[in-house]
Every structure is written in structure tokens, then in C-alpha cells.
Amino acid sequence: MTLSTTATADHIYATGLRNQWHAVVPSHFVAPGAMRRVTALGEQWLLFRRSDGVLSMLADRCPHRGAPLSLGRHLGDRVACWYHGVEVESDGTVSSVPGLPGCNLEGKRLVASLPVREAAGAILAYFGDEQHPEPVELTLPEPLDDPDVEPILCYAEWDVPWRYAMENLLDPMHGAFLHHESHTMYDGDTTAKFRIRETGRGYFFEKTDQRGVNFDWVELCRTGIDWVDLSIPYPPSAGPGGAFGIVGMACPVDAERTGVFFWRYRRVQDWQRDTWRFLYKTLIEERHWEVLEQDRVMLEAMPADADQRENLYQHDLGVVRLRRLYRAQAERQAAAAASAG
């Protein structure tokens, strides 16, 4: 449980939706036997791996005096607060109070813990509320759960609201302008008409008059975790695997900062998998970071009230649909939290 019963819709909209999974950080950020403090959805958390590699995510707050557990010691299967030595298990249960053995804190689950799992090199966590403490069903993006697909994770943190990062992905037309000089998005018309096509898990936002040329479509998917899928055509000189796909996610760090996850993938097997990874690491990855940098520079330069001073047109239907969906969900969650309070 992480959501305060006094949380407003504006707060939820700013810091991230609850009762769903979010990608938090790449798996390699937390080595076996190590721990790391992270901020997610505006809250401080401690990620630590037990000696056997099992990952846990705890509120970064000792139940005794509120000191950060992340400043403490890793004891293999638990952590000990640096301030007074209170030991906390991976599920948030206090196992020992060294200063007063037998203290009534021992044996109580006093630290919030989140369900976690790992997929395709990322740590995913479920953020619930008082009415929904148990995790919802999680269906991973198909390209991250298919043995015939090779995904490569790229992660960065941007000083932008998480919604701006998601809206950027639901805006295919920016590729023909912002990324016009890139090695993949230089071709195609700079005019287009779009449509929204509803699906059982979200919607497509796609060009009606161009396909397989540029950034021509994107699908928003809501499968217990929010993600987008898109495809960009690649020339034969870029190696095997056909079109180049991207799965994207955005994790709200807080109201002003976002962790962005981009898995670049192609459908390859056997020796073609090795060829694709070699080509990507040696020739393509640097170019892709240049494209991401263009997105970062543009989004970070936008004022905080950019979405309050707009004049939208037909190309923005995907963004408008996304905002309505997220705003409605934030209002429902705030109302439910207030009712519980």
C-alpha cells in the first residue's frame, strides 16, 4: 500500500497511476548482495538483493525512527538500520531489535514492501493502494517475452513529467520533423492524416495514408503495465531481422523526472541474433542515442504548463485520447482513496 487516502487526482496525475505495475530501474542497477535507493512515483524505496539473488523492494524508512534503511548494512537476507541496528527482512518484517531483544516490534511486518519481478533486464514493481494491495495480473509485452525476439534495453532519466514522455510516444508525426536527420526517419511525407483504432488492450494511433515508411503507427497497450509498441522500417544494410521495433515505458520518478525505458528489438534467431547484436552495439546504438537526445532536449525545454497553453489539431488525437484516459483513472483512484479514508 503506497497511496495516501488524502491523495488528490492532481497528485496522482503528476506522480503516476497506482494499482498497476511500473518499470523502476534496470536490473543491473542492483547487483547480487547489493542495495540501492530509488525514487518511484514520488516515494523513496530500497531495492536490495539477498545473497541468493532474490530481489526485494522496501519503503526506505526504518520502522523505529524513520531513518533511511538505504544507509544501513546488507546482512545477506535482511538489512540493518545504521541508526540503531534494527533488522528488517525482505518482506518488511522486523526480525531483530539488537538494543532491546524481545521488543514488541520483533515479528511485526512494519515496512511496506512491493511485489517485484524482473523481465528483459528491468525491475518491475506493483504499486497498489489500500483497496488493491495484491498485484493485478501482468502480461509482458510480446517482444520481451518471445524467444525469437532479441530486445536490447536502453535506459535514461529525463527532467520531464512522465506524461510528456508518454505523449511523445503517442505522437508519431514528430518523427518526420524532430528526427528528420536520423538514419531511419528521413523518408516519407511530412503531411498525414491519422486515426485511432481501438483494441482490447488499448488503441493504435496510425497514419491512414502511409505505412512501412517512417514512424507511421504506435500502439498503447495496458496489460497490467502500460507500454507502447512501434515499428520503423530498416534497410537490408542494417542486418537481419526485418523492421526495427521499439517497446517503450515511462516510470514516474517524481512529478518532474521520468525514467524512460526503450527496448530496441528485431525478430532474429541463431547466428542472426549474434549478427544483429554486434551491428547494434558497434554501428547503430550511438545513432539511436542521438535520436533519444533530440527527444530529451525538446521535452526538457518545454515549460511545466506546456499542456495548458496549446492549440491542438488532428495529429494530436492520440495525445488527447491518452490524457483523457489517464486523467479519468487518476480521478477514480483519488475518489476511491478518499472513500477509504
UniProtKB/TrEMBL annotation:
Keyword Cytoplasm: no
Taxonomic lineage of the native organism: Bacteria, Bacillati, Actinomycetota, Actinomycetes, Kitasatosporales
Sequence ranges assigned to domain Rieske in this UniProt record: 21-125
PROSITE patterns, A to Z: RIESKE
A Pfam match: Rieske
Origin species: Streptomyces siamensis
Name of protein: Aromatic ring-hydroxylating dioxygenase subunit alpha
Entry keyword set: 2Fe-2S, Dioxygenase, Iron, Iron-sulfur, Metal-binding, Oxidoreductase
Keyword Oxidoreductase: yes
Domain of life: Bacteria
Gene Ontology molecular functions: dioxygenase activity
